[in-house]
Amino acid sequence: MIKKKKTEIYALGQHISMSAHKARRVIDQIRGRSYEETLMILELMPYRACYSIFKLVYSAAANASYNTGSNETNLIISKAEVNEGTTVKKLRPRARGRSFPIKRPTCHITIGVKDISLNEYEDKYMRMIHQSVYNKSRGGIWGKK
């Protein structure tokens, strides 16, 4: 039986005080990029969401280096998603004793990083198993009649 190592490490930020749409336009720019390239992009983008996402990417890389001992140069952003959180509702006083509702949206951001050096080793190992099982010349399961 083959045990699969956990190669994806997460960092989760909950109840971040910003709209999910505004965070998504930054997240879409960094999905699938390398760790170092992501940090450069987030430092240079002019949006307010970049600071929160920068901290989460940094935290995910720190989790990966501490838990699995992976090097930060081998990390890529494999999963980046934004979900809507709860909406904080407040009342603002208006003229003639009336009130006006204020809705402050929050969001939950999940950043997942993956070590590509571990994936190359697993892919090579799985390819060897695949060739030995399905190869006709070695008498694999498809070689028997």
From TrEMBL:
Family per similarity comment: Belongs to the universal ribosomal protein uL22 family.
Classification via InterPro entries: Ribosomal_uL22 (IPR001063), Ribosomal_uL22_bac/chlpt-type (IPR005727), Ribosomal_uL22_bac/org-type (IPR047867), Ribosomal_uL22_CS (IPR018260), Ribosomal_uL22_sf (IPR036394)
Cited HAMAP family: Ribosomal_uL22_B
Record NCBIfam families: rplV_bact
Location of this chain's protein in the cell: Plastid
Record has Kinase as a keyword: no
Annotated keywords: Plastid, Ribonucleoprotein, Ribosomal protein, RNA-binding, rRNA-binding
Superkingdom per UniProt: Eukaryota
Keyword ATP-binding: no
Natural source organism: Primula sonchifolia
A GO cellular component entry from the record: plastid
GO molecular-function term, one example from the UniProt record: rRNA binding
Protein name: Large ribosomal subunit protein uL22c
Pfam families: Ribosomal_L22
Function recorded in the entry: The globular domain of the protein is located near the polypeptide exit tunnel on the outside of the subunit, while an extended beta-hairpin is found that lines the wall of the exit tunnel in the center of the 70S ribosome.
Primary gene name: rpl22
GO BP terms in the entry: translation
Subunit relationships: Part of the 50S ribosomal subunit.
